[in-house]
Structures are given as C-alpha cells and as structure tokens.
Amino acid sequence: MDKPQLSKQAFWDVDMDKIDYEKHARFVVEKVIDRGSFEDFIAIKTFYGNERIKHEIVNANWIGDKEIYFCCAIFNLKPTDFKCYIKKQLNPQLWVY
Questions:
Q1: Per the database record, which ranges form the DUF6922 domain (predicted)?
Q2: Residues 65 and 92 sit within 8 Å (Cβ to Cβ)
C-alpha cells in the first residue's frame, strides 16, 4: 500500500521519507491527531482504518484533552479508554493562579 499523503504541518521535525508507516503507526497517528490538519486525519483514516487508529490512539503516551474528546466523538470512545488520560488523572498538575 502507498504511503498516506500528509502535510508537513505535523511532521516539521522529521524526514517524512524515512518514516516506516507500518512500524511507527503510533508515532504517525499521535502526530496527526495532535498537530495535523483535518485532511491529514482523513489520509491516515483511509490508510490505517478505524480499528488500527483506535488501537494506536488509546495506547498513545500523550495527546491533549481537546484531541482526546475529538477522538471520543469520532470513534465512540470514553476518555477513560485512553492510557494518557488515566495517567493525567493520576498525576494532577498544580493550578497556577
């Protein structure tokens, strides 16, 4: 299968020609969800499919709250399904006032 056509928006810090899209699927999905455009999201959805993206994103080490809720809406998940959400709840940040 061909590589997904992704913008440099999320991958500004890496050489996109050297990415192994199968081996580093979690890296690609995290980057697109966190920093990519909606077109990038459609491209990975077409390339990986819903189940693979769900598997990779719920096991991601870190994504923002806004992105977690976006994935919940798209993939019919709950925030507590995400490993990174559980980690955030276990390690609350100090409130800066």
A1: 6-57
A2: no
C-alpha 70/C-alpha 58 separation (Å) is 12
- pTM for the full predicted model: 0.84
Nearest 5°: phi and psi at 19?
-75, 130
* Structure confidence by residue, pLDDT tens digits, 68-84: 999 999 999 999 999 98
In angstroms, the CA 19 to CA 80 distance is 30
Q: Which tokens in the block code for residue 49?
A: 């499919």
Q: Which two tokens stand for residue 33?
A: 């969800």
Of the candidates 79, 93, 2, the one whose C-alpha atom is nearest the C-alpha of residue 48 is 2
Q: How far apart are CA 71 and CA 77, in angstroms?
A: 7
pLDDT digits (tens, 9 = 90+) for 1-33: 688 999 999 999 999 999 999 999 999 999 999
